[in-house]
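Today's session is about reading a structure prediction critically. Students often jump straight to the picture, but the first step is always the sequence itself: look for stretches that repeat, for charged clusters, for runs of hydrophobic residues. Only then move on to the predicted structure, which in these notes is written as discrete structure tokens rather than atom positions. Here is the chain we will use throughout the hour.
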Amino acid sequence: MNVYDMCNKYLCDNVRRAVMCRNLDLAEEIRLRLGKAVRIKYCDNEEGLSYIVSKEDIENIYGRLTQYSPYAFKEEINSGYITVEGGYRIGIAGTVLEEYGAVNNIKNISGMNIRIAREIKGCCKHIIDYIKGNTLIVSPPGAGKTTLLRDLVRLWSNKGKNICVIDERNEISGTYMGISQLDLGERTDVIVNVSKSKGFEMALRAMAPDVIAVDEIGGQADIESINRAINCGVTILCTLHSYNEDDMIIKKGISDLVKAKAFDTYIFMNKGLSKKRIKKICNKELNIIWQENS
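Below is the predicted structure for this chain, in token form.
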């Protein structure tokens, strides 16, 4: 399902007319805020439209997203988002109702962030021969790290590796009704909507993966899970929000992995309009083994 089909299916008439006259091929997000103008976010800019989102618009779209049965999407909603056909992920803002320290419901929806799912097959094909063993993709927000991760998973999977994707927030696979909406390869299993640490535990116990892939590591529990998997002989493919090498090595927990040479390969990414999103690839000693020509 392309972005225009998604808009036709899930947006109400007024919002759909406002956004469909824009070029959405390069859009990353469509933001809807009650009483505010519709906004479309691109890689390096944002466009404000003239249409103001009404309460009726929000209610209509929310009904479409949940198929008028919010209870069926309760677990996702209570995590702050809904995933729809095509792998599109819609963040939700509103009044949170808690019970015993856990989110029980979100009411009075006031904002939605439609994150546009994209897969670029072959985006890592030109560097695949440089990527060996445990691999960390280091990238600032919005540079395409999840897209690159997804393509690596697909290629490794199709080349014979059994891969388990721990998709904590359903951003890698875009799973809808139990089916990954994005191509992760022939030998990939996906565990969705679970913490990384629990997902690692489940994968190591029962799925016998050659590789575990996970997005956005950082917490101490993530570091411990990675160490446990490596000790079990499983290869790790993961990403990290960081702007450069210096920023990476000062992050708590990550610095220990770097010093221990836990990763065999580091991929550093740029953010910008250029198609040359991959800046350089380094080995475990952080020596450059490949670099994009300027």
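Discussion point for the tutorial: DSSP finds nine helices and 14 strands in the chain.
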